[in-house]
């Protein structure tokens, strides 16, 4: 009798589970009819990941390859936009440059937010300028913008140049070892020291210590594993539920390290009446101000969040840009020779000194960097979240609040209509004559519109200083350890090579 009751109970439990699964599946299938109901073309989603999350969780392809594949699909079908799904939420991939301009600039008030997960209470360092939206973002952005004027860049330049001296010394030392360079690591040590000094006024010591804490914890933000990606999918699919569970996207040890660094540095400056012209000083000054128009001052957690964002975004994207630029120059010796000649001719006019004026004179180097950024934009695509109902101009399509729009930057950069023979590395695309022909919003390595990367000018400056140091005395060729063709790391949302880029170098 007991066994019959147990069997009956088990059948009841199984029945309930099956019913729940059936309800969830039906709910998903109805959600997957969203774009069809709106007469918008779409790529068929897969239960339960949709399209976007499936590429991350199942297909394990890089963000670059994923975006290029979607763009090719849209281009072949001559779509101006088409639908995707993130889990069950609708995403519109926008291909038409005029519509992209509308989202990023003209109709920006409908698209203020990025749509990234933010948990100010449980994961305070997630609430930084790159993630937050609304009025808080507007006020912080307004406060930070003056930090990145050309005048402020000149003030910071000596700090950047001082870090290049350490880079030069390390290059001399490594030359004696007669080993290939993992160029991303060397470039990353340089940019870590630059950002640490310019942002926080601290010496990171990345070249002195192989396991510098700033380098270790900076890399931790980007070194994801499959579990991290699954968690990222979950928190962005169900942000309110994730907050209720107090889920974090920034590792606890990274949070603790940066909170400690900011707290200790702020305390030291206050107690010793120290003032520096750096990013942290702006945050310290903002703590005393009504920064958001509602009588609130900046909290220590908010200060640490902004410092973390500036630090990790600044060192990683710039190191990656230098890596790809040197990779391409190792494949195109004529380009490398021309850049080196320009570097040495300009430096000769400035008594061999790397100063702000000499760096600004290196026009051809700028073209080479711009072409590297076209082929390898640090972020393959950017997202915007609709914050109020939006009617797509020239159509009957109305997008509801909460809908995500994807801007496929790398796809646009490889579009033959904008860049003939797009796989070819050709710096002449950005010559003074040719760059006038580039269509607005067809070149966006730092994003575009009112949420364009605030540190673009600073990033390019440190890239140029780093490349000047790399190239003025050395010639680079590709080492056989570099796997060709390059494959991008599927576990990094920054465009990064899987297996690294290894270069031989010799003094000339």
UniProtKB/TrEMBL annotation:
<feature type="binding site" description="axial binding residue">
    <location>
        <position position="453"/>
    </location>
    <ligand>
        <name>heme</name>
    </ligand>
</feature>
<keyword id="KW-0560">Oxidoreductase</keyword>
<dbReference type="InterPro" id="IPR002401">
    <property type="entry name" value="Cyt_P450_E_grp-I"/>
</dbReference>
<keyword id="KW-1133">Transmembrane helix</keyword>
<comment type="similarity">
    <text>Belongs to the cytochrome P450 family.</text>
</comment>
<feature type="transmembrane region" description="Helical">
    <location>
        <begin position="6"/>
        <end position="28"/>
    </location>
</feature>
<dbReference type="InterPro" id="IPR001128">
    <property type="entry name" value="Cyt_P450"/>
</dbReference>
<keyword id="KW-0492">Microsome</keyword>
<protein>
    <recommendedName>
        <fullName>Cytochrome P450</fullName>
    </recommendedName>
</protein>
<dbReference type="InterPro" id="IPR017972">
    <property type="entry name" value="Cyt_P450_CS"/>
</dbReference>
<keyword id="KW-0349">Heme</keyword>
<dbReference type="GO" id="GO:0020037">
    <property type="term" value="F:heme binding"/>
</dbReference>
<keyword id="KW-0503">Monooxygenase</keyword>
<dbReference type="GO" id="GO:0005506">
    <property type="term" value="F:iron ion binding"/>
</dbReference>
<dbReference type="GO" id="GO:0016705">
    <property type="term" value="F:oxidoreductase activity, acting on paired donors, with incorporation or reduction of molecular oxygen"/>
</dbReference>
<dbReference type="GO" id="GO:0004497">
    <property type="term" value="F:monooxygenase activity"/>
</dbReference>
<dbReference type="Pfam" id="PF00067">
    <property type="entry name" value="p450"/>
</dbReference>
<dbReference type="InterPro" id="IPR036396">
    <property type="entry name" value="Cyt_P450_sf"/>
</dbReference>
<keyword id="KW-0479">Metal-binding</keyword>
<dbReference type="InterPro" id="IPR050476">
    <property type="entry name" value="Insect_CytP450_Detox"/>
</dbReference>
<keyword id="KW-0472">Membrane</keyword>
<keyword id="KW-0812">Transmembrane</keyword>
<dbReference type="GO" id="GO:0005789">
    <property type="term" value="C:endoplasmic reticulum membrane"/>
</dbReference>
<keyword id="KW-0256">Endoplasmic reticulum</keyword>
<keyword id="KW-0408">Iron</keyword>
